[in-house]
Design a protein that fits this description.
Blueprint lengths: L10 E4 L2 E5 L3 H15 L4 H10 L8 E6 L5 E14 L2 E13 L1
Antiparallel strand pairs: 1-2, 2-3, 3-4, 4-5
Length: about 100
Amino acid sequence: MPSSLSESLPRALAPDLELTQAHSLADLQAVLDGHLDGFGEDDREPLSAKFFRRPGAIPEHVLYVRDTTTGQSVSSVSLVPQTWTYEGIPFRVGEVDRKSVV
C-alpha cells in the first residue's frame, strides 16, 4: 500500500481520465492552458503569478486530472503551504487554492 498520494500517481479515474501531479513547468503550463481554455483569458495573469512567480511555489503542489486522449488538463487544484506561528510556535498549514474544472 503506498504511503502517500504522490506514490500512487498517476491514478486512473475513469476511461480516458487520470489524476496526476505536476512535476515540471511544462505540466504547470498545461494546467494553466486547460483552465484558460475553459474559463477565458481573464485569469492568465493571476494564475501565471500563482503558478510561476509565487515564492515557495513548486510544481508538485498542483494535482490535476488529465484527459489521456488529448493530454489536456480538465481539472486541477493547488496547495499553498505556509508556516504560521501561535505564541511563537511555528506550525505548517496548507490552503487549497485554484480549483478548476473544465
